[in-house]
């Protein structure tokens, strides 16, 4: 990998007690982003097997010390990072307070979620579960939501499998996996259930790196014909094995998505409370069936059921998530290459030059040039006004743009511009998303944001659409039509 690749820090934990789900999906994301980013993994108390699994994707590992509080851990993590570093958080301990602490120091945040519990201070929230809607989230203004199987956290062999030409399914071979750790040993109990239902079928039993019952499993299956044990397989080996089996038994977790990507008769057995929503989605969307229904399934009905599930699986899992993630992270990286600060008196001349730029004036409500004395008085008033927020952006010491938000009666009107020499680089989206995120830190409570752009100014309109603003009825001002956009922002304390 080229040393020019920017770094991306993943923070997640995993072991035999809590399972490996958070680690596995972070590694899947790291592998998808490897062409563009160098992954660094921060983890507390990793075992040797887990460490080997991580280093196969992210060679650099930061071992997180034990701290008395999460605030202390967040401060330690910040001490390891340069400003503007992108950080991916995956774990239920990374609460709104933890996220806000990192965001206050200017780190770009991505959060992998599956609980929809708290306010999201992250710039990007990823929830691969189906059936989730943006209305279910409270987040910083301008935050991006990557929801559903279009953003499935599939490792590269499973993305490739989703794009392969279909082949026949061998329903005489069963795949069984109950997660990377399975501390309650659902693996052994489910194995006995499957042997009783299908005594003559071949059974491939896969356990993960943190599975603590391997000796017990080996003793219980010793001498059983047709039962084959596999432990701690790599992604390519696992994908190949799934491809050989037409019937897949697993929890409704990331493993279920990998089974669906390969394709087959997927039977789900929930083993944790946080899997219920994904279980409901997969079964109601026709992608899988509950394992509990197995006893009622006639053997001669299985081929047609498998065929119907596979058709639906192919329609949903297209193998293109990596391209989507790379676009999201490249845009976020662009935004965090900029430094953000509040404007000061010394910036008056810079704002004056930007305000009188010909392209800016042509898109303004009033197109006439602005006199210096008028601008100077206006700029002083804005700096002194507690309801005005003026943000200036620089890249490598060069001013590249500004965002201004002026509030009146709970509504903030947005003005933003990019310097002439930096246009056409996607910086309009970058400066506005950064400014809106910072505004949430700087202004408490609930409020709304309004943007107005000339009807012909399609690039600015696309920026507002991209950041989640809702279009309102266009208005006519000074004989010109303007598109109007609104974003309602809820309090982070609610």
UniProtKB/TrEMBL annotation:
> Which Pfam families does the protein's record reference?
Acetyltransf_3 (PF13302)
Coiled-coil regions, chain positions: none
**Highest rank taxon of the organism:** Bacteria
**Positions of the N-acetyltransferase domain:** 338-488
Q: What is this protein called?
A: N-acetyltransferase domain-containing protein
Q: Which organism is it from?
A: Hymenobacter fastidiosus
Lineage summary: Bacteria, Pseudomonadati, Bacteroidota, Cytophagia, Cytophagales
